[in-house]
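We emphasize that the prediction below concerns an isolated chain of 156 residues; any contacts that depend on oligomerization or on bound cofactors are therefore not represented. The input was used exactly as deposited, without trimming of termini.
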Amino acid sequence: MEIERKFLVPALPDHLDQYNSYEIEQAYLCQDPVVRVRRRDQDYFLTVKGGGKMVRQEFELPLPEESYQQLKAKAEGNVIRKRRILIPLEPYTVELDLFEEPFDDLAMAEVEFPSVEEAVAFVPPAWMAQDVTDDPRFHNSNMSRTVYKNHSFFTD
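Result of the prediction step, given as a token string:
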């Protein structure tokens, strides 16, 4: 079970180079259920996610690189590329995603929780702005489906 909230980050916090990070590339094979393949640095995974926004089922299995490449070639839509920075925020870890083209002006933070109660009670730091947990535009699976020019996708 995955319990997480997502926030837009309009201005990056200072000193990001002090935190661990990794590169992610992911492609979507199916939208219902969400099935994706992901490369995280040199590790490869197949992930299936159930319906829902803040709370949903998630299953992740390791893949050999060759299988990842074959499945990525069959993906629907765009490949999402981003750098994920891991920022400690006791007792949690903020996963700050800095996206590449065409979403290169987007920074989004995700926080995973052990319970719904903790997720609801969470008060984000000031640098995390609008809560977009329930906004389907900010699900990577939806972002993968269309290239948005001038990033109008993210403005209300």
